[in-house]
Structure formats: C-alpha cells, structure tokens
Design brief:
By secondary structure, this protein is of the alpha/beta class. The chain has one domain: TIM Barrel (Alpha-Beta Barrel). It is built from ten helices and nine strands. The chain is globular and about 60 Å long. The structure holds zinc ion. The site of zinc ion has 5 residues, from loops.
Length: 275
C-alpha cells in the first residue's frame, strides 16, 4: 500500500469528523505494533519519530526500515518527523524519505514562529511532502499558552502548513491532575479554518470523552507517545520477569511485546475513527 503524506490522510478525516492516530516509534517492535494495529483495524495511520533521533543517524536508519514496512502494509501510512526543532532536521527527514515534517516554533515569538514554519513548509512542499506547525504552546507538564484564534488563522494562512497543532489544555507526558480541555476554543479555531486539519498533542492519558469532543470539532490527528512507549516498556519488563534468567531468541522474546503494543494502538485507532 502507499506511503502517503498527511494531506491524503487528514483532509478526509477532518471532513468526516474522525482522527488518525499518530504514534511515536523508536525501533522495529514499536513500529510493528502500530502497523499490525492499523492493518487489523483497516485504518490509515501515522508513524512518527522524535526529533532527538534526527540529531544522529538513528532517524535516517529507522526511516529505511519504516519505509519498507509502510510500503508492505495493507493500509496507507505516513512517516512524520515529530516536533522538528530546526530546519536542518526537516531537511534530514525529507532527504531520508519521511513523507511529512513538523517544525515546532511554538516557543518562539509569533513572527519568528511564522517565519521558520513557512520555510519548513516550503521545503516540505518542494519535496512533495507535507508540513505541520504549532501555534500556542503545548507544555511539558506545566500550563502551556493556549492558542489564540486570530493568531491561529494568521499562522495557517501565512505559513501554508497542511496541519496545525493547537494548544487547548493538553500537556505532553502523563497528567498530574485532570486536564481542562478547552473544547470551545478548539471549535472556534476549526470554524475559522474549515479546511485545515488540527492536531492534538499530548494525547496520552487525556480523558477519552474530551478527545471525542475535540475530534468532533476539527482535530484530525491525535499524537500518542508516552502511553504507547509505556506499554512497550511494561510489557518488555513483564516478559523478562517470566523468562527468569533463561535464554530465548530475541525475535521470540518480542513477539508478545509487539502483540501488547498492537492491542494498545488498535484500541485508540478504533476510538479515533469513531468505531
Ligand atoms: Zn507533541
């Protein structure tokens, strides 16, 4: 099946009030878990890789494998750079074969964010790929700066991004207390930009009824990293404990871990698709 860009996955999703899951992967097993889940659900999926892996050859090495897996998959798959920190990483991703990139300038002043995101979007489009930007700041555990509607509109129009991450109360990582998700703000941004797929970062652990509400109101991509990685680690640990020091070939060892990852991702993909 085809390796696709965000546009092909997210435009129909936005129109149909559903979302595509975007899962961070870091190795063969986490990638396989996502793909098995998407194939089982007959749903498209986005595989994304952390920016820090672009600081070394890891991201390009991974891409070789991911491309091969994606082309073999029975569902459309996009390969995406998550939270690109600089134009250099964007260029590395596009050269390596990722079909989509995010440039995260959300910590910068508005004009600076617009400027660098537009450069990233232009690079992506020139390569036949797509770009995601972020306006407002999704924080790392503390309160972020919520996205202002008029800034979101100007940001989208000026940068030409294909998908836009907005800050509406979710945070990265796990929550310390129940988050206040601003569904009204999400709806206002969506109404002002009726064709643009919006992105929810910090999906891990967000109450599902809130996720449903924002999918009804413009969110077409939901990022899942922490809870998926957690399932991978916990399941690996449980298998190690079972092994109790005995030898098992590595591929066999990871089979049940991949199954646990796939089950986790499938549950979310189903939910995002409104099934
Ligand atoms: Zn994020």
């Amino acid at each position: 099946m085809a390796l696709v860009t965000l546009k092909e996955l997210l435009l129909p999703a936005r129109r149909e009030k559903r979302a595509v899951g975007a899962f961070n992967v870091a190795n063969y097993e986490t990638a396989l878990g996502v793909l098995h889940a998407a194939e089982g659900e007959k749903s498209p999926v986005i595989i994304q890789v952390y920016d820090r892996l672009f600081a070394s050859c890891k991201a390009a090495d991974l891409c070789g494998m991911l491309e091969r897996l994606a082309r073999r998959a029975s569902v459309p798959v996009a390969l995406h750079l998550d939270h690109g920190s600089c134009l250099e990483h964007v260029a590395v991703a596009l050269k390596a074969g990722y079909t989509s990139v995010m440039l995260d300038g959300s910590k910068l002043a508005f004009e600076e964010n617009v400027k660098i995101t537009k450069l990233a979007a232009d690079l992506a489009h020139a390569a036949g790929c797509t770009a995601e930007g972020e306006i407002g700041h999704v924080a790392q555990g503390d309160e972020g700066a919520l996205t202002r509607v008029h800034e979101a509109v100007e940001f989208a129009r000026t940068t030409g991004v294909d998908a836009m991450a907005i800050s509406i109360g979710t945070v990265h990582g796990y929550y310390r207390e129940e988050p206040m998700i601003d569904v009204v703000r999400c709806a206002e941004i969506a109404n002002a930009l009726p064709e643009l797929p919006l992105v929810l970062h910090g999906g891990s652990g967000t109450p599902l009824e809130k996720v449903r509400a924002v999918i009804e109101n413009g969110i077409a991509k939901v990022n899942i990293a922490t809870e998926y990685m957690d399932t991978y680690l916990k399941s690996s640990y449980a298998e190690l404990k079972k092994l109790d020091g005995k030898f098992l070939p590595t591929d066999k060892f990871y089979d049940p871990v991949v199954d646990a990852c796939a089950a986790h991702a499938a549950r979310l993909i189903r939910f995002f698709a409104g099934k």
